[in-house]
Structure formats: structure tokens, C-alpha cells
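Duplicate of #3305? Posting structure anyway:
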């Protein structure tokens, strides 16, 4: 196209317009701290059927569990109202990443997850166990690492991450929920189900005939944290960590976990071995 005065002016205006609007498209979304301050609400992910972490009363719609109680305490610390958003362990990372929820309590910070979301400091250290069918006995994790052993886990969970890492040769069956994995164990489809101790002790209290708990060697623990959307403004992350420091130091985290274990699933504090600390 020939360069004349009219074309030069039109092209100059077009380039100027692109420069002007460019920053708008690259602008970061509203920070979590700013959104909570603006709305007065914090959106927390909740997973139904994950008692004693989360459980929902279908008649009243009320959420209960130790992560629920801790979530309410976090909201109180931030002077905000809780808005519960139902999700699953498999979808929670995406819900945090896409700003559907402000954070997810109870999320394990695996390397893959750290690439897409940020994490607070640990709420507590979780201890991995195995619920094995009757007659299936072993002492070490490596004894499960064979194709003849069928292991059930809930997809996308810390259990899934663990068996993927340490049991590459085992036959892993992945289910949408922890309850579905438990049904597979009940029906004899699998030999065992990997669960953190808070879930395995609750399961054995509810279904004592399903099998027995094994604490394989060596100990496999993982931190349980709060998953937070990646963002430049770290105000929200800093606030969550400040709340956590206070909650751990005061004994609130430990007392909240133990009281919910007793009230919701009938597991007394004496059920936990000495190596388990909250």
C-alpha cells in the first residue's frame, strides 16, 4: 500500500490504539485480599464425603469437619464471612487456579501442584497408612510394589500422588472419591486402600470388619497446607500464614482435629500412635 499522509495517520492511530489497550489485556485479576475486602466474603472449597475433614448435612446444607472449623476460624481472623463452594480433591487445584475459590484447606503441596498454585505453611503433618483386606499382611511399602497387588486411591488426592511415586509397579485403581475406593475394598476388587491416618482410623471405626490398618515402613508423611491462587500480591498468603502461626501456637489446630475425630467419627485421641503429631 502506498505511504501517503492519510495512510500514515491511520496506521499511527492504529498502532497507538494497540499500545493503549495492551496493558488492559495483560492486567492481573483482582487480588484475593482485595476481593475479600471488597465483598466481605472468603470462598472456601469443601469436599463432601471427606469426613472428618469435610462433611455436608444433606438435610440442612450445613458443613462440618475440622477443616470446616478451621476455615471458619480463618474467616473470623480476616473479618470475613465464609462462602462454601463444593468441589472434589481432584478438582480443587483447578478451582483455586481459575479463581473459583479463594483457597483450599487440606491440600497437599506436591511438586506438580506447586507449579500451578501457591501454598501456605503446613497446617499439620499427615501420616500415610494402608487399610488392607483381612489376611493381607505386609510390613514395608515395597511389598506392595508388584503387579499382583491391587491398590485403591481417590484420583488426584495426596494418596494418588504417593502411590504414583513409590508404587510404580503396583496395579493402581483410581476412583472419583475416597468412598468409591472404599467400596472397591469392601467388594474385594482391591487388596488395600491407601489413606492418611485421619481417614483410615475413621474408616475402621465405622467399618471394623473391612480389614486392618498397616503402618508400613519407612514412614511416609506429607504436609497438609492451604492451596492459594498464584498472584503478585502476597497479602492474602501472608495473612493465612499469620493465622496459621497463631492457630498452631495456641493448640487450636490440634484441638480442632482431635475434637472432630471424636465427635464425627468416634475416634478417641488414644487411637493415634506416638509418632503422629498434629
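Output from current build:
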Amino acid at each position: 500500500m502506498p505511504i501517503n499522509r492519510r495512510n500514515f495517520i491511520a496506521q499511527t492511530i492504529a498502532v497507538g490504539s494497540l499500545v493503549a489497550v495492551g496493558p488492559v489485556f495483560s492486567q492481573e485479576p483482582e487480588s484475593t485480599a482485595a476481593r475479600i475486602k471488597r465483598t466481605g466474603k472468603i470462598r472456601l472449597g469443601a469436599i463432601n464425603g471427606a469426613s472428618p475433614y469435610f462433611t455436608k448435612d444433606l438435610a440442612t446444607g450445613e458443613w462440618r469437619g475440622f477443616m470446616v472449623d478451621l476455615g471458619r476460624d480463618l474467616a473470623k481472623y480476616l473479618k470475613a464471612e465464609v462462602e462454601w463452594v463444593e468441589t472434589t480433591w481432584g478438582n480443587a487445584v483447578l478451582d483455586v487456579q481459575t479463581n473459583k475459590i479463594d483457597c483450599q484447606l487440606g491440600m497437599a503441596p506436591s511438586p506438580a501442584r506447586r507449579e500451578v498454585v501457591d501454598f501456605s505453611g503446613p497446617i499439620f503433618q499427615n501420616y500415610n497408612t494402608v487399610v488392607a483386606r483381612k489376611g493381607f499382611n505386609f510390613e514395608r511399602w515395597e511389598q506392595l510394589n508388584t503387579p499382583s497387588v491391587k491398590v485403591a486411591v481417590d484420583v488426584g488426592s495426596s494418596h494418588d500422588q504417593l502411590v504414583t511415586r513409590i508404587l510404580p509397579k503396583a496395579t493402581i485403581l483410581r476412583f472419583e472419591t475416597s468412598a468409591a475406593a472404599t467400596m472397591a475394598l469392601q467388594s474385594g476388587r482391591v487388596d488395600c486402600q491407601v489413606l492418611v491416618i485421619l481417614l483410615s482410623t475413621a474408616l475402621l471405626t465405622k467399618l471394623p470388619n473391612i480389614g486392618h490398618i498397616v503402618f508400613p515402613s519407612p514412614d511416609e508423611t506429607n504436609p497438609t497446607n492451604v492451596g492459594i491462587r498464584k498472584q503478585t500480591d502476597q497479602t492474602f498468603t501472608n495473612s493465612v500464614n499469620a493465622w496459621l502461626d497463631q492457630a498452631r501456637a495456641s493448640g487450636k489446630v490440634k484441638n480442632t482435629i482431635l475434637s472432630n475425630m471424636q465427635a464425627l467419627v468416634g475416634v478417641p485421641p488414644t487411637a493415634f500412635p506416638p509418632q503422629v503429631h498434629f
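Confirmed duplicate; merging threads. The longest strand covers residues 124-132. The domain at 127-221 is CATH 3.40.190.10 (D-Maltodextrin-Binding Protein; domain 2).
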